[in-house]
Amino acid sequence: MFKDVTPEELYHLKQQDHTLVDVRSPKEFEEATIPGAINIPLFSNEERAQVGTTYKHEGQDAAKELGLEIFSKKLPAFIKEFKQLGTPVTVFCWRGGMRSKTAATVNNLMNVKVNRLKGGIRGYRNWMKEQLNTLPLPPLYVLNGHTGNGKTHILHQLKDEGYPIIDLEGMAAHRGSIFGGIGLEPNNQRMFNLLLGEALLEYQDQPYILIEGESPRIGKIMIPDRFYQHKETSPQLFIELPVEERVKNILSDYSPSDYHEDVVEAFHGIKRRIHTPVAHAIEEALENREYPEVVKNLLTYYYDPRYSHSTACDEELITSIDGLSVEEAKEKVKQFLSAESQDRKSEGVE
What we know:
The chain is about 55% helix and about 10% strand. By secondary structure, it is an alpha/beta fold. It is globular, with a radius of gyration of 25 Å. Keywords: Selenium. It comes from Alkalibacterium putridalgicola.
């Protein structure tokens, strides 16, 4: 007989050599799943739709019979996929119902030991929502500054060096501007909340977390209000690089030559907010694929004025970090954090 595990137990199992298997259809899996899970579906998208239609028109028994008929044909291949995993396994579906019960039962009958997540992904989401509402929030240091100042690059490099980082844009799979979704497949709110909740759990014992300054919305994602308000009252490290470096960073991040039509479409969405002669100059540079000129004008006449207007941090929270390059700014951030750590130690906080 398989064992049911709670969402909290599953979170701790994830930290070990453990595989999570989402047995829902590929479409459901792509929309949102538990971070780190793989997909071994009982039914394809078409098969799930067929079973659903049968349930609607002929009732539960007919739908179960059809589901059994479809699944029995793929049972050997289904079991084989689980045997190849070579780790302990927990399966889940939407509510911890028939699909995950079936997957757990047939695997155990074939001596492949698996657990089932109690309450399914919905239960895990509800548990994670509770964590987001109640977990102690460690102190934050917020990398802030105008567009293109390398904040995300600095975060990624510091993460590689072992610093505690939460990459909100990475979790949203969106860069946060009108051009922010170009070349990316943005996550939905459900997936974002799961990723953020797990990151906060991971860093509970850290003295602080580094994040990037964001508005309340990243693309279509809303940052949970409790976390956002904590960010707003945290120390802000304002990164400032030369315009030429910012242009290079943006061109590297967005690769506009690879997504020319998407860039043009996005620009048309903000064109009316830019002074007409400048908008015409940007449009002409776009037509000629003169991307450095496009970026420089957008920074000067659109992003920088909007950013300066929207930023209203308490002056006492702000520390300026100037540099000629991302690398230099990163080193200055590290020096600041080291000094802060020494201060905390002298005060007996750490």
